[in-house]
Amino acid sequence: MPPPKPQIIRVVDLETTGSAPPAHGVVEIGWQDVALGADGRWELEGEGGQLFVNPGRPIPPITQAVHHILDEQVADAPWWQDVARRVLDPYPRRLALAAHRADFEQQFCSPNLTGGAEWICTWKSALRLWPDSPAFSNQVLRYWRRPQGIVHERGLPAHRAFPDAYVTAFHLRDQLNEASLAQLLEWSRLPGLLPRVRNTGPDRGKDWREISDDSLASFLTDRDPDVRYTAETEIARRRGGGHVGRPSAQELLL
Fold first, then answer.
1. Are 33 and 44 in contact (CB under 8 A)?
2. In angstroms, rounded to a whole number, what is the distance separating the alpha carbons of residues 45 and 70?
3. Any idea where the Exonuclease domain is (predicted)?
4. Left if phi > 0, otherwise alpha if psi is -120 to 50, otherwise beta: which for 6?
5. Alpha carbon of residue 91 to chain centroid
6. Apex CA 35: angle with CA 29 and CA 40, to 5°?
């Protein structure tokens, strides 16, 4: 008997007509798997894939300008409900799903399509593990980190579903080899913990630990949940609990 295939975390990326379903629909899905090897290290698994999806509506020019997918390319493609479940729920091998800025994908990948899968957000995990990065987009992390083994051309063009999933898979691989699966899932359930102030104003670009108590308190009513959460966490750190910044080695083993 051949050995059983390893369990996987499936990285997915969507290209869509916009950011607010059900008014907007999926036009393309790409995926790339990451699996735990016999040596205890996570690595990319298989070749991944890509499928066009008929969104059931015209693709606005403003989003075509991002991903360059044309209406005629998806006119004869299958519908999202006929594609999603078989890509998102490769039972029984899948441990979780992952995406960069996974909150976006989760809007379209509802629990009934994913089989109730848990999600890893590689953006939120990057904030925790690589706070020194100049920015945290998929592509900035790619060129700042230069992940070992990535094939440059296979990750192009950017803003297409498979190349973006492929690049994200290298971030996920390295995150899983630095922290546990349980830890990445825990971070992904929380808002993003921002290493630097990104709002406009005199504190822009500063480490949160550098700003005054009064300035910090002003962020508690910010509209952005990541900003509010980071401010709350920094206040807790100053009062003797919680922290902002790079986690300890013990925390990474959670």
1. yes
2. 30
3. 8-181
4. beta
5. 21
6. 160
Domain annotation for the chain: domains and CATH numbers: 8-189 (3.30.420.10), 208-252 (no CATH)
Verdict on whether the full-model pTM lies above 0.85: yes
How far is 174 from 91, CA to CA, in rounded Å?
24
Q: Tell the residue number behind the tokens 């080899």, with chain if given.
A: 177
Candidates 134, 117, 125; CA nearest to 101 is 125
Alpha carbon distance 118, 2 (integer Å): 29
Distance from C-alpha of 196 to C-alpha of 32, rounded to nearest angstrom:
31
What is the DSSP secondary structure assignment for residue 243, as one 8-state letter?
-
- 108 neighbors 14 (Cβ within 8 angstroms): yes
Write out the two tokens for 226: 């990541």
Q: How far apart are CA 178 and CA 172, in angstroms?
A: 10
pLDDT tens figures, 97-143: 999 999 999 999 999 999 999 999 999 999 999 999 999 999 999 99
Whether 68 contacts 87, CB under 8 Å: no
